[in-house]
Write a structure and sequence with these properties.
Strand content: under 5%
Number of strands: 0
Distance between the termini: 36 Å
Number of helices: 5
Shape: globular
């Protein structure tokens, strides 16, 4: 049984835009500290732009390949791991970023379903072409 169930479409429809909205709204709902709040808002704005520019089902201007989108997401996850230490966040502010980091890194790495090559999806086998 594979745990890799987050396909490109699931990532596009279920994760990208809802995650951006969480990043924009949660710091105010949770009443995070000033620095923690602004980091979340800045990343939230970027999180709205990235899927809009990604080559996947919800992309508006599809100029960023999906694989690069995933690597940007993973980099953000690492920033979220480091941010509480780097910015001296404590309590809820620190836990907010560590929980987000876990979600981002799990969804883009552990649970991410690898894309099938175009030849495999279309039923063609490149080894027999010729």
């Amino acid at each position: 049984m594979s745990f890799r169930f987050i396909t490109k479409s699931i990532h596009a429809y279920v994760i990208d835009y809802p995650f951006a909205i969480v990043l924009l709204a949660a710091p105010f709902v949770l009443k995070l500290g000033q620095s923690a709040m602004w980091l979340s808002v800045v990343v939230g704005v970027a999180a709205l732009l990235l899927p809009a520019l990604t080559d996947h089902p919800t992309g508006l201007v599809r100029i960023i390949p999906y694989w690069l989108h995933l690597w940007v997401d993973r980099a953000v996850g690492l920033v979220f791991v480091i941010a509480p230490v780097a910015f001296k966040f404590a309590g809820l502010d620190a836990w907010y970023y560590w929980v987000l980091a876990a979600g981002v890194l799990l969804s883009t790495s552990v649970f991410n379903a690898p894309e099938k090559p175009v030849a495999t999806r279309s039923g063609l086998d490149m080894r027999t072409a010729g």
